Amino acid sequence: MIRADAFFLYLIVMAGVTYLIRMLPLVLCRKKIENRFIRSFLYYIPYAVLSAMTIPAIFYSTGYLLSAVLGLFVAVLLALFEKNLLTVAVGACATVFVVEYILHLLG
Asked: How far apart are CA 50 and CA 60, in angstroms?
């Protein structure tokens, strides 16, 4: 069991680190960023981070790896055809549901 004084020390360190990560860019970059490469890099960071957090979770969120792969495939396919987010999500979930049902029936 963690002691209360250690907990508050950990909490203060975590708050400090979180604050520094958010505060430093505001202090160091006061003027508009003109470099095209840096602007492009910063533009794609949210998409890269979201993908890095989401894609691994997809493969471990179902009972069968096959249903996860097919659900991801359907989601990517629907997104490539520029369907809206609700259609993509429902299509992926329906695919996973059907595949899991079939695999459950087979054994």
From this structure: 16
What phi and psi values does residue 64 have, to the nearest 5 degrees? -130, 140
Q: What is the C-alpha end-to-end distance of the chain, expressed in Å?
A: 44
What SS3 string covers the chain?
A: CCCHHHHHHHHHHHHHHHHHHHHHHHHHCCCCCCCHHHHHHHHHHHHHHHHHHHHHHHHHCCCCHHHHHHHHHHHHHHHHCCCCHHHHHHHHHHHHHHHHHHHHHHC
Which class for 18: exposed (0-12), middle (13-18), buried (19 or more C-beta within 10 A)? exposed
pTM of the predicted structure, to 2 decimals: 0.66
Give residue-wise pLDDT tens across range 32-63: 889 999 999 989 999 999 999 999 999 999 99
Q: Cβ distance 99 to 66 under 8 Å?
A: yes
